[in-house]
Description:
Elements: E1 2-7, H1 12-19, H2 25-31, H3 38-47, E2 52-58, H4 62-69, E3 76-79, E4 92-94, E5 99-103, E6 108-115
Antiparallel strand pairs: 1-2, 1-4, 2-3, 4-5, 5-6
Helix pairs in contact: 2-3
Amino acid sequence: MKYKIFQIALTDQEVLDVNNGGSNRRYELHRDMFGDKVVPNAKLAWEENLYDHTANVEAVGLEHAFMISNGVRPGNLERVSKLACSLSVGDMLVDENNYVFVVDTFGFQMLPDMMAIPGA
């Protein structure tokens, strides 16, 4: 199965702004993705188009995609953005059927009420 990886990837300028005491919506939602806030914040960020398509991975399932992205298993990972990094909590995987999954604190949550952004 092929998956598209979507991440909230801050630009260098956004990182500098945050480090200098500033903030922005992308940073705030990503910063607060833990515990029972992961899925609601991920949904908000997705609906607000704050995710970037950063990579594609071919894997036999979500766990396998996670392991490939994190360098635990060899596999086919194609970075499509210089902002791509290893999968972590709050990142999204979209499968070939446009089903959306969020990396949760433990495992993944399918977001059945959401489909991929058209053309993403």
